[in-house]
Amino acid sequence: MPKAVIFDMDGVLTDSEPLICAAAIQMFSEQGVRACPEDFHPFVGTGENRYLGGVAEKHGVKLDIPRAKARTYEIYLEMAPRKLEAFPGAVELVRACRARGWACAVASSADWIKVAANLKKIGLDPETWEAVITAENVERRKPDPAIFLMAAEKMGVPPSSCTVVEDAVNGIEAAKAAGMRCVAVATTFPATLLGRADLVRGSVAEVRMEDLFRDSRVCRSGSNGSV
């Protein structure tokens, strides 16, 4: 049976959550709204439409979402070349999965413009993946499972043979709703909030190959995989 690993991007492959948050805060500031990082936490992983729209609702302001998103991405893309980095171990984990012959996909609620820029910056160009699914490809965002189910379909792998690597509560819910194993990394949310995942690691650098599939042990056996 073929196997596949589906990676979320923000908070899993790239340390981009603080950057998009800073860009959004600057955009809101230009609109006369004083937003703070905590305002965005409930909307992490839901896509930029909800990410920005939810904060606008919280502050009681009407937002032209397409225009606000375009400005946020403009600010973000100015920051990314100087500040964006891959998480330690992220690129190595993707390469190790490929070396095993596992299909690899990215499934991100962000728009293509951001996903492509991030992947190119960390040396994992979009064309090197079996599938790259972004917000434009699905009508319903995480926690709906549509994005992960589309990734599995594009790779020709049944959902039951896919493992998702996620950092967000909404992403974990989506993975479980898709019928997939989920390994969570506590880079954006504390481990105490990620309990719906099958396994939680402190960072992507701590994820082992045997964590991804139960029958893929390469060194130790008997670890319960919890942090």
How would you sum up this structure, described in words?
The protein has helices at 17-30, 37-40, 48-58, 65-83, 90-99, 112-121, 146-155, 169-177, 209-212; strands at residues 4-7, 103-107, 131-133, 162-166, 181-185, 199-201. With 227 residues, it is of the alpha/beta class. The chain has 2 domains: 4-15 and 85-212, Rossmann fold (3-Layer(aba) Sandwich), CATH 3.40.50; 17-83. Strands 3-2-1-4-5-6 form a 6-stranded parallel sheet. Helix 8 links the parallel strand 4 (162-166) and strand 5. It is globular, with a radius of gyration of 17 Å.
Lay out the secondary structure.
Elements: E1 4-7, H1 17-30, H2 37-40, H3 48-58, H4 65-83, H5 90-99, E2 103-107, H6 112-121, E3 131-133, H7 146-155, E4 162-166, H8 169-177, E5 181-185, E6 199-201, H9 209-212
Parallel strand pairs: 1-2, 1-4, 2-3, 4-5, 5-6
Helix pairs in contact: 1-4, 3-4, 4-6
CATH H-tier superfamily of the largest domain: HAD superfamily/HAD-like
Q: Residue-averaged pLDDT, rounded?
A: 92
Q: How many strands? A: 6
* N-C termini distance: 30 Å
Helical proportion, percent range: 40-55%
Number of domains: 2
CATH fold label of the largest domain: Rossmann fold
